Amino acid sequence: MVKKMPKTDVVIVGVGWGGGIIASELTKQGLSVVGLEKGLERSTEDYYMVHDELRYALRYELFQDLSKSTLTFRSNEKKRALPMRHYGSFLMGEGVGGAGVHWNGQTYRFLPYDFEIRSQTVDRYGEKKIPKGMTIQDWGITYNELEPYYDKFEKMAGISGEENPLGGKRSDKYPTGPMKHSPQMKMFTEATKKLGYHPYTVPSANLSEPYTNPDGISRAACQYCSFCERFGCEYGAKADPVVTVIPVANKTGKFDLRTHSWVRRILHKDGKATGVLYTDLTTGEEIEQPADVVVITSYVFNNTKLLLTSKIGRPYDPATGTGVIGKNYAYQVVKGAATGFYDDMEFNNFAGAGALGVVIDDFNGDNFDHSDLNFIHGGYLALTQTGARPIQNNPVPKGTPSWGAEFKDKSLKYANRSLSVGAMGASMPFRHHYLDLDPTYKDTFGDPLLRMTFDFEDQDRELAKFTAKKARGILEEMGADHVDAMEELGPYDITVYQSTHNTGGVIMGDNPDTSAVNNYSQMWDMDNLFVVGASSFPHNSGYNPTGTVGALAYRAAEGIMTYSKKGGQLV
């Protein structure tokens, strides 16, 4: 028998950045909020003196158990999708704080071009620049409209940085100054300036100095220990929901956080969400949580899956191009990199931080002329010093045997004599890239797994080769004795880690025919249901997505407050 709980003002599904921000903002204004999180509760104390690369980086301590719920993958519709049973291309977080606990902390703003990508591309290059099957669309919001929410997120998180010379205009400077520059970063800065580029310090959620945010949350500065990505921060120096927004929500007394709560359905009647149905994983009990407003703030894949299994919205049909739920899945092109090897120069590559680095945007967005190029958009090029932990890092020049005396000699020689320039390339959506429910495979509760259909396109291959060539040029300017650069981007490989920057499926826009949510993240088809996260991105930019997720979460919180007072579709 299903247990029915007392009705609340708002129920939130997933308590990461999106859920934490919305819980904080709504409870501060007097609304009662229930937060449901599938995983366990976490705190900074859990990470004291636990710099364990094997446990966290290689055995995936902070991530979803794929034996209970995963997704299936196929590169095209002619192939049978199979379940992802081992982590590879991306990592799905689980527990309070979500991916905001294990992220690196690189916190960019998308470019003004991103939000009006179709109209600006057509205005500059004409309709023919957009290849057949590419489904880019404007977001229904401009950079200038979103800018105040970027500013709010950065001040809450204490982002350390300096102004991007090629980025959108800012209403205020970063709340804390840029992180320290290592010798490697100084080399990159000097080389890129000589090449006529515009370097700036990576904007970082790893605090460069002690900071107290507008909510009164105080945090210590980064220790440059290099245990950021895949790890929780023992110092609280890396902004995550557990040390920023969730304590604010808890302090109000209006936030009821329930862990081990697996939400299986959004309940609805007569065009309105009425609450959610979840299973208490500690008891197996099914529980109904009624609410006036339902907010889905889990990871990209679960946001889409919940809508599809709950039969909300129109499932996307790639054959006709109609429908919206599952549309415009996009990833990231992160293989356009080069590594330089130095025979007589040694670096300290073990020290670092998740967002320590220098970056250029000269080849990002539409900051350069694409007239004679076979792709649109681009990506950033950066030298990041995230910490070369010993198990995962073993750089050797191409052609080195994978075992034996030569392999050992070069592994030792180049451990601290190599530098990489990486690219974070944008990912454009295509009509045949999408998410839907798998007809065969089920999760631990018997619900269909989500199915991903995706592969790299010529757009991605051309972009990757272009950025790899630019990365090679930078390393040559930095004096590398030998440079290995990517020569060809192969098919998408879900078994090899690339990035956890999945986007799309519940996309944003100004037209219900082509989008699932409006620019307040409110469902067109159900006005008391909000879906917040990178699932709303109509494409993925040449940046890490978290800053934009945070900005959209603040805007959604504002919209939910307005809706709670007035109701109706927000404009």
Automatic annotation (TrEMBL):
Lineage, opening ranks: Bacteria, Bacillati, Bacillota, Bacilli, Bacillales
Q: Which family does it belong to?
A: Belongs to the GMC oxidoreductase family.
Q: Looking at the record's lineage, which domain of life comes first?
A: Bacteria
Q: Which residues form the Glucose-methanol-choline oxidoreductase N-terminal domain?
A: 143-331
Protein name according to UniProt: GMC family oxidoreductase
Q: Which UniProt keywords apply?
A: FAD, Flavoprotein, Oxidoreductase
Q: Using the UniProt annotation, give all residue ranges assigned to the region (Disordered).
A: 161-183
Q: Does the keyword Isomerase apply?
A: no
Where in this chain does the record put each Glucose-methanol-choline oxidoreductase C-terminal domain?
Answer: 436-553
Which InterPro entries does UniProt cross-reference here?
FAD/NAD-bd_sf, GMC_OxRdtase_N, GMC_OxRtase_C
